[in-house]
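Morning, I've got a small favour to ask if you have a moment. The fold is given in discrete form, as structure tokens running alongside the sequence. I'd be grateful if you could look everything over and explain what you see. No rush at all, and the record is pasted right below.
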Amino acid sequence: MSSEATTTFHSNADAAATAAAVQKTLADTKAKVLGQSPDGTQIDFQTRKTMLNWELIGRATVVPAASGSDVHLWLNVHHNRPAALMDGVKNKKAVEKLAGQIQANLG
């Protein structure tokens, strides 16, 4: 079973405002930004380690759409960490939670 988790959602805000909400959410959750595009619409990041979870690596991509923008999120087990049986389920839950936090920051 794959440990990758993805989700996509639509925002009524333009790409710049949506990218700013993604960056705010990553800062709020104390994720470490590993790199980003010059316009901030693609961000590679690493979540922080908790007592129950290893770090995850992820990518957030904001794409302009006809009436706002689309956000594509991807999370996976960090390449320096051991894989576990339930990683796919946990990562899916984590990516959905992150999407919800971004949507809340969009207001």
The CA atoms of residues 48 and 55 lie 5 Å apart. The chain has one domain: 5-106. The chain has a mean pLDDT of 92. The chain has two helices and five strands.
